[in-house]
Amino acid sequence: VNDFYQRVYALVGEIPFGRVTTYGTIARVLGAGRSSRLVGHALKVVPDNLDIPCHRVVNRNGELSGMMQFDPPELMRALLEAEGVTFDGEAVDMRKHYWDPEEG
DNA sequence: CGGCTGACTGCGA
DNA sequence: TTCGCAGCCAGCC
Is A5 an annotated catalytic residue? Predict the structure, then answer.
């Protein structure tokens, strides 16, 4: 059960530089199916001792739904842009930066 | 212990 | 394509 969280952190940590993935993708890869909300919650309750690039995780629409959880909400987007991620309005350009853990 | 909420997604209209 | 509803599960009151 708690392994789920560990897997989320591990998987998120495998997201390549300048790439993003979605909560649903992570949940599916971990076998959680539709428990995509747990992924979001997992990143929310992520231990401080871990250094998780949670800014590389967005919703299926590429929107930075978790930006509001960052201390400065704009930090999330700033971090992504700093990695070379481009934006289409308020959402990440998924066609160019989407990363599927199963495909690599 | 019971009920509500939430960093979401999929399906039907 | 867009809008609304149901499902999933952990955490908090």
Answer: no
